[in-house]
Each structure stands twice: as structure tokens, then as C-alpha cells.
């Protein structure tokens, strides 16, 4: 089914964000493992799989709309250097993804592409409720208990 090029372009923009998130979470998870922060490793490694699933949804939809997935771009990729900067860069990327999803969902509504909109809604829910909320909680915990106590609790 030939899709609107504006939707395909928007889906490729989202794909660049999801691939960046997947790669960033992958690197961060391995850094946490190297530092012995096993709870953070487990959680962030799980996020890698979530982002891979999001990318799969986007790729499948792009292909269905007879577009070509662009696997070369990464939007927002930034590796942190310590726990707090890693969590902050992950949160910033999730904010970027959320904004991109909202913009693309709005475009789909304008163009009456309700199937693509429906495919994107679970990604938005996962981004807002699971990923973003958890990262915000972790940064608040660091502010409340301090970095040393936070890191100790994640070993």
C-alpha cells in the first residue's frame, strides 16, 4: 500500500531516534555492568530490547507503506560519562522521542492515516509511562539520597 511520503519521512525520523536510543542504552548498559551496577545494567539492558521492538514496529510500517527504512541515522545519541549524566542523556533522548511521536501522531490524524496512528500509540505510552517516568524517578532519587547512596543501592 503506497503511503504518504510525509508519513514515511516522519516514521524514518522516529526510527533515527529509536535507533539512537537503542544504541545509547546498549552502551550505557555495558558501562553499568563494567562498574558493577548490576540493577542498572538489568534495567537498561531491558530498555535496549524495548527500543529494538519500537524500531521493528517503525520498520514494518515503513515497509508496509512502500517506503525504505533509513538505518543509517541516529538522532540524539549521546553517551554519558557517569551515572547521572547517563541517566540525564537517556531522559533527554526519551523527551525527544516523545515529542517526535506526538508530532507524527498528529500528522497521521491530519492525513487520516489511522492505522499508523494506532501503531504509534503503544510506543508513545511505553515512552511516557515506562521509560521517561522511570528515568525521572532515578534522577529524583539521586537528588534525595545522594549519588553514593544511589549507586550503592544499584549494585
From TrEMBL:
Residues covered by the Ferritin-like diiron domain: 1-146
EC number, as in UniProt: 1.16.3.1
Any single GO BP term: intracellular iron ion homeostasis
Top-level EC class as recorded in UniProt: oxidoreductase
Binding site for Fe cation 2: 51, 94, 128, 131
Alphabetized UniProt keyword annotations: Heme, Ion transport, Iron, Iron storage, Iron transport, Metal-binding, Oxidoreductase, Transport
Record-linked PROSITE patterns: BACTERIOFERRITIN, FERRITIN_LIKE
SUPFAM superfamilies documented for this protein: Ferritin-like
Keyword Transport: yes
PANTHER family with a match to the protein in the record: BACTERIOFERRITIN
NCBIfam families referenced in this protein's UniProt entry, alphabetically: bfr
UniProt function note: Iron-storage protein, whose ferroxidase center binds Fe(2+), oxidizes it using dioxygen to Fe(3+), and participates in the subsequent Fe(3+) oxide mineral core formation within the central cavity of the BFR protein shell.
Protein family: Belongs to the bacterioferritin family.
Gene Ontology molecular function terms on file: ferric iron binding; ferroxidase activity; heme binding
Protein name: Bacterioferritin
Keyword Mitochondrion: no
Residues that, per the record, bind Fe cation 1: 18, 51, 54, 128
Catalytic activity: Fe(2+)(in) = Fe(2+)(out); 4 Fe(2+) + O2 + 4 H(+) = 4 Fe(3+) + 2 H2O
Residues the record lists as binding Fe cation 3: 46, 50
Amino acid at each position: 500500500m503506497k503511503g504518504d511520503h510525509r508519513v514515511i519521512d516522519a516514521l524514518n525520523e522516529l526510527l533515527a531516534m529509536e535507533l539512537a536510543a537503542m544504541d545509547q542504552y546498549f552502551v550505557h548498559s555495558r558501562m553499568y555492568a563494567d562498574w558493577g551496577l548490576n540493577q542498572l545494567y538489568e534495567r537498561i539492558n531491558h530498555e535496549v530490547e524495548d527500543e529494538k521492538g519500537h524500531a521493528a514496529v517503525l520498520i514494518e510500517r515503513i515497509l508496509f507503506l512502500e517506503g525504505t527504512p533509513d538505518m543509517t541515522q541516529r538522532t540524539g545519541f549521546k553517551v554519558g560519562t557517569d551515572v547521572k549524566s547517563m541517566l540525564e542523556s537517556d531522559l533527554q533522548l526519551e523527551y525527544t522521542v516523545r515529542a517526535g511521536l506526538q508530532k507524527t501522531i498528529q500528522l497521521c490524524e491530519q492525513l487520516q492515516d489511522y492505522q499508523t496512528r494506532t501503531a504509534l500509540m503503544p510506543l508513545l505510552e511505553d515512552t511516557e509511562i515506562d521509560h521517561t517516568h522511570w528515568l525521572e524517578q532515578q534522577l529524583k532519587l539521586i537528588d534525595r539520597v545522594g549519588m553514593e547512596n544511589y549507586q550503592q543501592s544499584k549494585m
